[in-house]
Specification:
- This protein has a six-stranded antiparallel sheet with strand order 13-12-11-16-15-14, with helices on both faces.
- It is α+β, with helices and mostly antiparallel strands.
- It has 21 helices and 31 strands.
Length: 818
């Protein structure tokens, strides 16, 4: 029996088919070479091992099939053992006198299966050699192939170049890749070159002078080289497949390869575009690097960027070439400039979106690790490749020297303009606050600072108080209160000129700046320029601080300019403080001349108010008076003397006291007004408007005299009905304007609960408006006012002030009958 078994094994080994003799447990007793190849191993590795160990998914069914095996054949199907393969292994089991016999057949996938697998491979990531290698692997695993390569046509060079390799044996992959990737073939050269030249598949054949396989060439019994045709039936590449076993690949190539050919052609087209661009970029990069230019390529679809080492260094990165998302390259770009770069890139696929040119140029700032800010200029171009893809290329150079020269020129120009602005503030800025604000904005702009602070002392009733003006805050920012005290570091306080400060290396100055509690991110500032404000006596009147986030931003040129600004500002502050002291004195004098604001009238409520103007002119000639005439009669007067300052305040006092004395002496209002007219014309040489109302608080009867003044009004209890007092026929001219004054009264009646309202023109006049617009606004403002007369007057003034600040001072006088 043993002799019979030995003869069977000898015969079995000689068979050309894939057959294996098994024992009842499924162990391989003997097998042919083809059987071993069908399950993906050598014959020596198959014999004396369980066949199930060499099978894929479903191999566990073999044991059950052997136990149930009778006289009839049994067929089972299992997945191919090769990883990633689409094939199936069919096993046909039959009982023989010497044990179970298994015929093994590997059946290839359909063309549709292969196409789906290749599509999945190329869709899993962006085009590149690794994608082609996955696709080639799917094709090789789908049949009996052991080795493969994919070649792309380089039209410019007229050569066939390898772009991907594959081998079933992982141990030989590196050697196969190394030998293949170092080879380029001309038309007709080697079997791949013949397929290119003949535009059709080349099966087997002599490799000729293609010695890439070396001593291994004899291993491969089947060789297939199939052209890959793209648009216009043009050959764009060749696929090379080799098998150690004898195969008939013609039918498989006509179905399977034809199905995947369009996909491979599309991927090769895209890869050839990229290779062409990279080659051009490589040549350009070498030339540009010699000229200290950086280069980068941007894939418009994925946003992936590849950059040269010079480009990385220019952008503050480690000076090595690399690839990654655009954000990685632009990580150190100034945040204010990122939007401009993005706009330039977004406009490239549609050149007409900007100016019809395919070229964009953008300049932006990059901060390096050492804190230094550099200016870069990048020219960006977009090229639409034959495949329809957009390839973006960027060339960058460092233009810091040019930008700094431009900035120096610009700052010199700004210095001249800024000094003129400061000079204008000195000339026109009589108000200390306005002077400080003008200087803060002018100096911050001239010096190119991000933020500017002017700290100064303002005269108070008992002592000077610290105030400040800020520049560089976002629009609409609320100005906080300044610190209570100005604790200037000793070295800065003793300095007579501006000081350049690096806030990181001088902690005392940094603490001083942080202590100001500015409403900005002071912690990010690096450079400071501290400028003392000194008067003619060289005493410190204040301090200016200018900040910038860049190290070493301010220069000695800035120091010289800041010294001039500090000196000019000292003169301006001294002048403004002198004017402020005069203003305080004049205000106090004026308030002494005005009557007590707590006047009372029997049978009526009364309210008087005086508000200074908001254009920096607080002392004016506006006045009011409430005069007791006896017999339940009261005189109400509001006047406005021309001019401002101490002179106007003194004239106002003379007019008010003279008028009060005249009407209380039983002189008629007409005669009293004529006396004031002669006083204005002949002695004081000024003019004044006035309105005077005599009111009987018992009956409500009233008479109104008006000389050049706006008309008083009466509003009902709800403020919904307003009527004006005094028509133009009875009105006289302003006092001090004509020698002979003619004026007569108009009569009316104030009902109980109605409000009689007198005012000066500062309440209604606004720049750029007609007086009628102001009067209409006043009339509509009485609706919804409080029943309390004091509250109503305050609400009325605030409402009108919110609609537009008054340029002039304002006097109000209101009476409501009980």
């Amino acid at each position: 029996m043993a002799a019979d078994r030995s003869e069977v094994e000898t015969v079995l080994r000689a068979l050309p088919s894939a057959v294996a003799l098994l024992d009842d447990e499924g162990t391989v007793v003997e097998a042919t070479e083809r059987a071993a190849a069908a399950v993906g191993c050598a014959r020596a590795d198959l014999v004396d091992t369980p066949l199930a160990d060499h099978l894929g998914v479903g191999g566990d069914r073999l044991g059950a099939a052997l136990r149930d095996l009778g006289a009839d054949e049994v067929e089972i199907r299992v997945a191919d053992t090769y990883g990633g393969s689409l094939s199936e292994v069919h096993l046909r089991l039959a009982r023989s006198p010497h044990g179970p016999v298994c015929a093994i057949e590997r059946r290839n996938p359909t063309a549709e299966d292969l196409l789906a697998a290749v599509l999945h491979a190329v869709a899993s990531s962006d085009v590149g050699p690794e994608v082609l290698e996955r696709a080639l692997g799917q094709i090789g695993e789908s049949n009996h192939w052991d080795l493969g390569a994919l070649w792309a046509v380089d039209d410019a060079a007229g050569l066939l170049r390898p772009v991907a390799t594959w081998t079933r044996d992982p141990d030989g992959a590196d050697a196969h890749r190394r030998r293949t990737m170092q080879t380029s073939l001309a038309v007709g050269e080697g079997l791949p070159g013949r397929a290119w030249a003949e535009r059709g598949p080349v099966v087997d054949g002599d490799a000729g002078d293609d010695d890439r396989l070396g001593a291994d060439a004899g291993r491969f019994a089947t060789r297939l080289h199939h052209p890959i045709r793209g648009g216009g039936d043009q050959v764009v590449g060749v696929i090379e497949l080799l098998a150690e076993t004898d195969e008939d690949p013609a039918a498989w190539a006509d179905s399977a390869l034809r199905a995947v050919e369009p996909v491979l052609a599309h991927v090769l087209d895209r890869l050839r575009d990229r290779m062409a661009v990279r080659a051009a970029e490589g040549r350009l990069a070498a030339a540009l690097d010699a000229g200290r230019f950086g280069v980068a390529g941007v894939d418009a679809g994925s946003g992936r960027v590849e950059w040269s080492s010079r480009m990385a260094a220019l952008h503050g990165q480690t000076a090595v070439s690399g690839a990654g998302p655009l954000s990685a390259l632009l990580a150190s770009v100034h945040s204010d400039d990122l939007d401009e770069i993005q706009r330039a890139l977004r406009s490239l696929p549609d050149p007409a979106a900007v100016d019809g040119s395919p070229l964009r140029q953008v300049e932006y700032r990059v901060r390096h690790d050492e804190g230094q800010l550099r200016w870069l200029s990048t020219r960006i171009t977009a090229t639409v490749l034959p495949s329809g893809q957009t390839q973006v290329a960027a060339i960058t150079s460092d233009v810091t020297d040019r930008k700094q020269a431009e900035q120096r020129t610009q700052r010199r120009t700004m210095a001249i303009e800024g000094l003129q602005w400061v000079s204008q503030a000195i000339i026109a800025g009589r108000e200390l606050r306005d002077t400080a604000i003008a200087v803060a904005h002018a100096a911050t702009g001239v010096l190119g600072a991000v933020y500017g602070v002017v700290l100064y002392q303002v005269p108070g009733d008992t002592a000077d108080e610290l105030a400040w003006a800020l520049s560089g805050l976002p629009p609409g920012s609320e100005i906080p209160s300044p610190p209570a005290e100005l604790d200037v570091p000793t070295d800065l306080d003793a300095a007579h000129g501006p000081a350049l400060v690096d806030l990181r290396s001088q902690p005392d100055v940094r603490a001083f700046v942080l202590g100001l509690r500015l409403p900005v991110e002071v912690g990010t500032m690096r450079s400071a320029l501290v400028v003392p404000i000194r008067g003619e006596g060289q005493g410190r009147l204040g301090t200016m601080v200018f900040l910038h986030p860049d190290a070493g931003y301010f220069t000695e040129d800035d120091v010289r300019l800041a010294r001039s600004i500090g000196t000019s500002t000292g003169v301006a502050v001294e002048n403004a403080k002198h004017h402020e002291q005069q203003r305080l004195a004049a205000t106090a004098f004026q308030r002494e001349l005005l009557p007590d604001s707590t006047a009372t009238i029997e049978g009526a409520d009364v309210c008087v108010r005086y508000h200074p103007g908001r254009d920096g002119i607080e002392v004016g000639g506006d006045w009011y008076d409430v005069i007791d005439l006896g017999d339940d009669r009261v005189g109400l007067a509001v006047g406005d003397v021309c001019g401002h300052g101490l002179t106007a305040a003194a004239h106002m006092g003379q007019f008010r006291h003279s008028f009060r004395a005249l009407v209380q002496s039983s002189v008629s209002p007409e005669e009293a007004l004529r006396v004031l007219n002669r006083l204005a014309l002949e002695e004081l040489h000024t003019t004044m408007t006035i309105v005077y109302v005599e009111l009987d608080t018992t009956t409500g009867e009233c008479r109104t005299w008006r000389c050049g003044h706006l008309p008083p009004l009466i509003a009902d209890r709800d403020g919904g009905v307003v009527r004006w007092l005094g028509d133009d026929d009875h009105r006289g001219p302003m006092l001090g304007f004509v020698p002979e004054l003619r004026v007569s009264p108009t009569a009316d009646r104030v009902a109980p609960g109605e409000l009689l309202f007198l005012y000066s023109d500062g309440l209604v006049e606004r720049r750029g408006e007609s007086i009628d617009e102001g009067l209409d606004r006043l009339a509509s403002s009485f609706v919804g006012r409080s029943a309390d007369i004091e509250t109503a007057c305050d609400e009325l003034y605030q409402l009108l002030a919110d609609q537009g600040p008054a340029a002039d001072d304002t006097a109000l006088l209101a009476v409501r009958r009980h």
